Amino acid sequence: MKLKVGDKHQAVVIENVIRTHIVKYAGASGDFNPLHHDDTFAQRVGYPTVFGHGMLSMGLTGTFLTNWLGYGKLMKYGVRFTKQVFPGDTLTATGEVTDVKEEGGKQIATIKVITLNQNGESVVEGEAVAAL
Amino acid sequence: MADGFEFPVDRTQVMLFARSLLDISPVYSDPNHPDTKAQGGIIVPPTFVQCSAHWQPNYGLDMTRPLSEAEKAARAEAQAQRGGGGGGNLGRGLHAEQHYEYHHPIHVGDTLTCTTRPGERWEKEGRRGGKLTFSESISEYRNQDGVLCVTARMIGVQTERAVEQ
Question: What residue of B is the nearest CA neighbor of A35?
Fold first, then answer.
């Protein structure tokens, strides 16, 4: 796969988040913070309902990156969590190539990543570097 | 946690984690698939090292984990040091940023050792959640040959109140 600056890729990473998605991530990852599965707890501390782990959004965006770039290519992947993901949300990830260098016969591509909810609000924003 | 703890990379764990991220690629489950063979065996999703939580002693985000008396005492001490009680801090702590550097592939069958050290700490006045206290922690995951596979940098934030939507 060859990339050039300005190349873009976009895909829906999850449609209509339900609590089962969140609970499944909790069980797999081991993060049982009740904010993510206990509505009573979430409401007691001021949230309207439970919401997804930031790492669920980052992980789904990671699936988007490996589907696009291939496996075992990432050198770096980092994000900021910019908004909570609530049940009912649909997330779309976009990657845009911002830099490409040739190094040792490989392309080192820097990719700006942003994942938006159905209202166009970003939930994660970050950057990945891949050796292709 | 200067000494670190062991985190075995288990095939079922990898499959469960990949499924939770809606990823059905055979590279995370089927050792005989050509794509998996091309990777030298079953590999792990980019954020997989988060699963080390299951093996982390005194992990703070599982209040139902059965604990030995010694572990209970250690957890109570850690909570006292943080100045919080019970699950009181859980509702105010959020994940602000997460960064990974990938140095060497991880395969099913590896045994990783995770060591974590604290990084920077800083405060900021937030618009949506009151005073924000950020703290950074850096974890290194080395395999059974001592090879550094992943460096993970986590930035957590304690908020004064629930973040406004």
Answer: B91
The answer to whether ipTM exceeds 0.90 is yes
Q: Does B43 sit within 8 Å of A78, measured CB to CB?
A: no
Q: Within 10 A of B105 (CB to CB), how many other CB atoms are there?
A: 17
Q: State how far the Cα of B92 lies from the Cα of B21, in Å rounded to an integer.
A: 25
Cβ neighbours of B161 in A, within 8 Å:
46
List, in sequence order, every beta strand (DSSP E) within B19-162: 93-102, 111-125, 131-142, 148-159
User: Contact B25/B18 with Cβ under 8 angstroms?
Assistant: yes
pLDDT tens per residue across all 132 residues of chain A: 899 999 999 999 999 999 999 999 999 999 999 999 999 999 999 999 999 999 999 999 999 999 999 999 999 999 999 999 999 999 999 999 999 999 989 999 999 999 999 999 999 999 999 999
For residues B155 and B124, the answer to whether their CB atoms sit within 8 Å is no
The residue of chain A nearest to residue B43, with distances taken between CA atoms, is A72
pTM across the whole model? 0.93
Buried b (16+ CB within 10 A) or exposed e, A72-88: bbbebbbbbbbbbbbbe
Tell which residue, B66, B74, B7, B18, has the closest CA to residue B43.
B18
As a whole number of angstroms, the distance between CA A105 and CA B112 comes to 30
Distance (Å) from the C-alpha of residue B158 to the closest C-alpha of chain A? 13
Q: What is the pLDDT of residues B83-123, one digit of tens each?
A: 544 444 667 788 999 999 999 999 999 999 999 999 999 99
Do the Cβ atoms of A76 and B54 come within 8 Å?
no
Pairwise CB contact (< 8 Å): A27 & B63: no
* Contact with chain A for residue B132, Cβ under 8 A: no
